[in-house]
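--- STAGE predict ---
source: upstream dedup step, 1 unique chain passed
mode: sequence only
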Amino acid sequence: MDIHVIKVFTPKVQAHPRDSSALAYTRFHESLKLPPRGKRLLDAINEGFPVKILRDVAGSLSLDVYKVGTYINIKTATLNRRLRDGTLTTAESDRLYRFIEVYDSVLDLFEGDKALANQWLSSPAVGLGGDAPISVVRISTGANYVLSLISKIEHGVLV
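--- STAGE serialize ---
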């Protein structure tokens, strides 16, 4: 009599990738000393972010601050005023935070590797109709589109 043994695969329980305790690197928004979410973040956006945050984002991406300004829809003359004044408006801070959220998600996707994250952001993506992710985050719909693509990639959905 032949007995067949059926082995059952049981995956190891892992922390969710968005759980900051599971990450081996500091989340980007944390490195900028931004509040995580909720009322404190809402207040910070309403007060307007200091331009230092914009400069730090640009530095992390190895981009000129004016290039990041175009990605968050700030015209050059306006950005010059903001750099002099030291504070972004509520709307500009909101767009910058949206950009930071996208960058955080891309860093999660590449497990903290900034070089790969930056390369992916500036490369044409099939899932975005051939557009580079960084070029579509100027508006909230584009940012949501990029975040959706990242989620699909993380979950192995064919795009």
